[in-house]
Design a protein that fits this description.
This protein is α/β, with parallel strands linked by helices. It is built from twelve helices and ten strands. Helix 4 packs parallel to helix 5 (105-122), helix 5 packs parallel to helix 6 and helix 11 (264-273) crosses helix 12.
């Protein structure tokens, strides 16, 4: 168990944070019968992480203004988190907008330089990166655009490596780098500088078995986003429409670990086989109750998966 440590992607918490720490909870609870207040305060949020057994956190790129507004600088946020039992801010998540357009490469790289600096100041070692934007309105990409996106990631990787950071490609089932492009794109990446974040649900929805993917690319996979889904091998017409991941009717693409079709036990057998050590991330997109999903998923990890690795 000591070889594996768990980080949580805080993409749904803290976005409306009012204070680094609330001093008068009665002021918020009075007349508020929802659970929203529980997700506003970083002091509480970090305690949920540690209480559930997640000693690492991963931040979204759009959290940078909040961190700077309420903590002054990223280092102060990391210190605040460590005081509450967080071992490390493992990294951040970013999107490589316009990476398929060679004429805009400098502009796109400079835009992401801010994220490199933010991650380094947090003490993070990974930036998980969605290549390009969404498929709708942008795809299908030409071979030249796929090559441009790969060359962009290689240059971004060199910049990241200068600060001790590994950028990890994070595919989305609705992304411009999609099923037909994924492997031609990967083949053009320089693995000296670039890794892969295996999002178990995203890969399965797109149409690839995450167990086989990890078996084939275990040296390339440097990080994970664990989540489950009941939409394995989803047809293109459902995956590639406008706003596919964000359903107006509340339908969920993603579920707690063990509640869907991802073969996590198969992945865990391979983690043991290949001697994976280090951080593994949990991501809980689209849940109506982030804390419930966090706890149910960690229960599954503790009772179903960790015994396999031991």
């Amino acid at each position: 168990m000591g070889n594996l440590k768990f980080s949580y992607q805080t993409n749904m918490w803290g976005l409306k944070v009012q204070y680094p720490k609330l001093s008068d909870w009665n002021e918020w609870y009075k007349g508020d019968f929802s659970n929203s207040v529980y997700y506003l305060d970083w002091d509480q949020i970090l305690k949920y992480h540690v209480g559930a057994g997640f000693t690492g956190i991963e931040l979204m790129f759009h959290m940078q203004p909040y961190i700077e507004q309420f903590f002054g600088e990223p280092q102060a946020f990391t210190a605040f988190a460590q005081e509450r039992g967080i071992e490390a801010v493992t990294g951040t998540f970013a999107i490589a907008f316009n990476s398929q357009d060679k004429s805009r490469r400098k502009e796109a790289l400079d835009a992401l330089q801010t994220n490199i600096d933010f991650t380094a100041d947090l003490g993070g070692h990974v930036i998980n990166v969605m290549p390009c934007g969404g498929y709708y309105g942008l795809g299908p990409l030409s071979k030249e655009q796929v090559t441009n996106a790969a060359e962009f990631m290689n240059e971004f990787g060199r910049r990241c490596n200068e600060k001790g950071i590994t950028p990890c490609v994070h595919t989305e089932f609705w992304g411009a780098i999609n099923k037909a492009d994924l492997f031609p794109y990967i083949e053009q990446l320089d693995q000296k500088y670039v890794g892969f974040c295996l999002d178990t649900a995203q890969v399965l929805i797109m149409g690839y078995d995450p167990v086989k993917f990890y078996d084939d690319y275990h040296d390339f996979v440097k990080f994970f986003h664990l989540k489950d889904t009941t939409f394995a091998y989803t047809p293109d017409e459902l995956r590639l429409c406008a706003g596919a991941e964000f359903q107006d009717n509340g339908d969920r693409w993603f579920w707690e670990l063990g509640a869907g079709q991802v073969d996590f036990k198969g992945i865990w057998k391979l983690l043991k086989k290949y001697g994976y050590k280090g951080w593994i991330g949990l991501e809980t997109d689209g849940t109506p109750d982030p804390m419930a999903t966090m706890l149910l998923s960690k229960y599954y990890i503790n009772h179903e998966l960790l015994p396999i690795y031991e």
